[in-house]
Design goal:
Metallo-beta-lactamase, Chain A; alpha/beta; binds zinc ion; 272 residues
Length: 272
């Protein structure tokens, strides 16, 4: 199984040479088995460049892919409007979310159309299928997927992707409980090879007025990673005001408490 980070920022994209190391695009990830259908998680701005490359490499051949949504905040959605394959008749996309198929279609149609965008979502040329994520485990293209609710305004899901050998947990948007740790997430992540966790805020930023905003810190990520006994913690969903140097600092502080911690980088691929 391969897991690729296409965008590792939260809230808004960040640009400029102080953001080159970790990248400036918002949340988007790619999961796949070799030569199988691709699974995209969230359509932040990280999907845009990937979509352009995909279209170039695809030539006229047809493309099938699945897109899973963790939730619908704009940082996880804004790239869909500029995702080239959406506009191609040779693309078939199956969209998965916690909403009913009708509500999902309505939600995406409200983003593309109205006063917000010149092209209506359902008038784009790709073939679209809408699915509600089933309870428990399900499978796409040979990968087993399960999910767990996160503490985030309007709700969000963590996903677990698992093949025969390895597993990775993606928990990009979550706020830790006031006291203790999120036991449900720790149980869900238990024994996973990788835990990708929301490191949007530093502990001091969190204390200074960001309680209730739905995000967490590297320190809380370490607590969950330790309790869940995961192989490696990967910090992600970085604050768009945190420049490379700041993320370097966050990573070195984290490594003091959990030496195997990594920081997600746009374009980075993990082969599991
Ligand atoms: Zn987010
Ligand atoms: Zn969110």
């Amino acid at each position: 199984m391969e897991f690729t980070f296409l965008g590792v920022r939260g809230s808004t994209p960040a640009s400029g040479n102080k953001f080159n190391k970790y990248g400036g695009h918002t949340s988007c990830s790619l999961v796949q088995l070799p030569d199988r259908e691709k699974i995209v998680v969230d359509t932040g701005t990280g999907i845009i460049g990937w979509g352009q490359d995909l279209k170039k490499n695809q030539g006229g051949r047809s493309l099938r892919l699945s897109i899973l949504f963790t939730h619908f905040h704009l940082d996880h959605l804004m790239g869909l409007l500029f995702f080239n394959p959406l506009f191609s008749p040779s693309t078939q996309i199956t969209f998965y979310s916690s909403l009913s198929p009708k509500s999902l279609e309505k939600c995406l149609s409200s983003l593309m159309g109205g006063r917000f965008f010149p092209v209506k979502f359902m008038e784009t040329s790709s073939k679209k299928i809408f699915r509600k994520i089933p309870p428990g485990r399900f499978r796409i293209a040979g990968i087993q997927i399960s999910h767990c609710p996160l503490n985030h305004p309007q709700g969000a899901l963590a996903f677990k992707f698992q093949d025969k050998y390895k597993s990775v947990i993606l928990a990009t948007d979550t706020e830790h409980p006031e006291n203790g740790i999120d036991d449900e997430l720790a149980a869900f992540a238990f024994g996973a090879d990788y835990l990708i966790y929301d490191a949007m805020l530093t502990p001091s930023e969190y204390k200074a007025g960001k309680k209730g905003w739905g995000h967490s810190t590297w320190e809380e990520g370490i607590k969950v990673a330790k309790k869940a006994e995961v192989g490696r913690l990967i910090l992600s969903h970085f604050n768009p005001v945190h420049k490379d140097r700041k993320i370097d600092q966050i990573l070195s502080q984290s490594k003091k408490k959990l030496p195997k911690t990594l920081a997600a980088k746009e374009g980075q691929k993990i082969i599991l």
